[in-house]
Amino acid sequence: MHIRQLKAEEYDERIALSEFAFQMKMPAERIERERAHFRPEQHWGAFDEEGRLQSALILIPFECWVQGKPFRMGGIAGVATWPEARRNGCVAKLLAHSLAVMKEQKQFVSMLHPFAFPFYRKFGWELTIERKKYEVPMPLLPKRGNSTGRMERCREIETLNGIYERAASQYTGTLVRAENRWHQTVLSDSGLAAVWRNDEGTPQGYIVYEVRDRLLTVRDWAYENGEAQTALWAFIAQHDSMADRIELIVPTDDAMPFLLPDPRFKQEIVPYFMSRIVDVAGIVQSYPFVPFGKEERLKIRVRDEHAPWNDGTFELIWAADGSAEAVAAPEADFDACCDIRALTAMLLGNRRPGGLRAAGLLQGSDEAIGMLERRIPVRTPYLMDFF
């Protein structure tokens, strides 16, 4: 078996594999339309000795927000294998190869949407993104009162993205959206987009939605403050003659049930995306830890069987301002110990060190756990997109 990037002339073979693996049939016009967007350098395949494609995945270069800072991120998608090649280790080799490629490209973070969480946990990815799904009967929404500002229809990407960036940077895991992503995903389907402007005319919230069969579905929205959020909810309520209920996705820390007169509507926490630290030393050097006024040091043993450069003991050295580095330390000398999944959960999933120790996923003294607790910021993970 050998692994390489696909070639442009292998597009049809890649489509055939995806159609089989994901049990779908793409219309001929869509196949031809997407041919122009095919980026063979992003598709990696495992081939047998006769050169036949056995498995493939897509490694997409993204940026995502981590603790208010953009990080290079490798998005894994489209993982597929022909049935005759399954259980031959093709996907395992592709994932290991992808980790090496991401490390070389300084993509310290990787994210994916799993078909099965246990499968990707074996390779070091961990659940980091959960989302809250609402289904709200229209009569429960407050009607628009004397609120100021105005709503206007808008599909201007610069305006929408400005609001999105300011909102998305408050979370960990949200994508930094390039212009083509707005065109190809957010605004690609039918539906309306509208912006809320405050009294000064500054855009501070937007919504992308559609109404069909008495259901209003919010496909994408963002707001910068409570006033903008209230205005968007009031705008949704204006559709009461067209829709009986609303469906939308929000972060897990969304407080709308508390703010509504009647919070008894359907709310569901949905596990969504997994993340992985690709390079421990790289992410520590770039990560915005909490300042503490003095230098601190902690030796942590990290287990990672699929990325050997992560498997070992690191001394984390924090400066007073929160900047840090991770340097190799003697194997047997450490203050805390965990695998790459637990470390990912701490740095990218807002799972607190104390909770991980209580669950048996992190070992360490009270002093070591306390140091991790005060150095790692608290920030809700969230992702509006899919890839």
TrEMBL record:
GO MF terms held by the record: aminoglycoside N-acetyltransferase activity
Keywords for the protein's UniProt record, in alphabetical order: Transferase
Listed Gene3D superfamilies: 3.40.630.30, SCP2 sterol-binding domain (3.30.1050.10)
Lineage: superkingdom: Bacteria
Annotated GO biological process: aminoglycoside antibiotic catabolic process
Pfam families linked: Acetyltransf_17, Acetyltransf_9, SCP2_2
Protein name: GNAT family N-acetyltransferase
Organism (species): Cohnella zeiphila
Taxonomic classification: Bacteria, Bacillati, Bacillota, Bacilli, Bacillales
